[in-house]
Write a structure and sequence with these properties.
8-stranded antiparallel beta sheet, 17 strands, Jelly Rolls, 7-stranded antiparallel beta sheet, mainly beta
């Protein structure tokens, strides 16, 4: 009887994460360990408005709050510079089908909504925006300015380390978000898109605010089934 219960538990756990074919190639990986402290990873660009506070707001690789190794990417917004942003290299020649974007995330400050991650399409427009609202919820943007709570996920709290995976179904334009092993289920993305070209992380004018990104990976995927 005990063996049957164990098998049931294992089967139920297997349904928590989207079914993905094994052996798919790694598209991109950045652990920030080889990046000089105070610098940016190769190919990444930093964008901030030219306000009086722009020199105070900063994006760089630092040595605090790393999940693996000794370094991580840090976004720090300390005053009124809005939409502090770092943008990835162009992946358009690499991401052509389903894929999984994974990273570790830790946040402090800025209780109101902050855009954790934005995915850009082939036109440079937003395909999907995701906010982390500390002590409230994770949110995703759908159809212009409408924001919805990502279902089923744990409430994000300051200082907690979160391992985030975003599963993208390119054909059906849907996303499944997994945070610390808890799955949201499939949701529709912001708009129709052919493929993802770039990723950006934003502080989104919530000063004072800091967050860290580590162990960033993009893998090809092929979904066997969806719920």
């Amino acid at each position: 009887m005990r063996c049957k219960k164990v098998l049931v538990v294992i089967f139920c756990l297997s349904l928590l994460v989207p079914m993905v074919a094994a052996g798919k190639r790694r598209i991109y990986s950045e652990k920030f360990e080889r990046v000089k402290r105070g610098a940016l990873p190769k190919g990444w660009t930093y964008d901030a408005p030219l306000t009086r506070s722009v020199k105070l707001d900063k994006v760089s690789v630092e040595t605090d709050f790393a999940e693996q190794g000794k370094k991580s990417l840090k976004l720090s917004e300390v005053s009124d510079g809005s939409n502090l942003q770092i943008i990835s290299p162009d992946f358009r020649t690499y991401i052509t089908g389903d894929f999984v974007l994974s990273f570790s995330f830790r946040s402090l400050g800025g209780i109101s909504g902050r855009s954790v991650i934005i995915l850009l399409d082939e036109k440079g427009d937003k395909a999907l925006g995701i906010n982390c609202r500390l002590n409230t919820d994770w949110r995703y943007q759908f159809k212009n300015t409408l924001w919805y709570t990502v279902p089923n996920l744990p409430t994000p709290v300051p200082g907690e380390l979160y391992k985030v995976s975003l599963y993208f179904d390119t054909r059906n334009k849907r996303m499944n978000m997994v945070v610390n092993g808890v799955e949201s289920g499939w949701v529709d993305t912001y708009q129709s898109w052919d493929y993802i070209t770039k990723i950006s992380f934003n502080c989104n004018d919530n000063h004072p605010a800091e967050y860290w990104i580590d162990n960033l990976r993009i893998n090809e995927a092929k979904f066997k089934k969806q719920k």
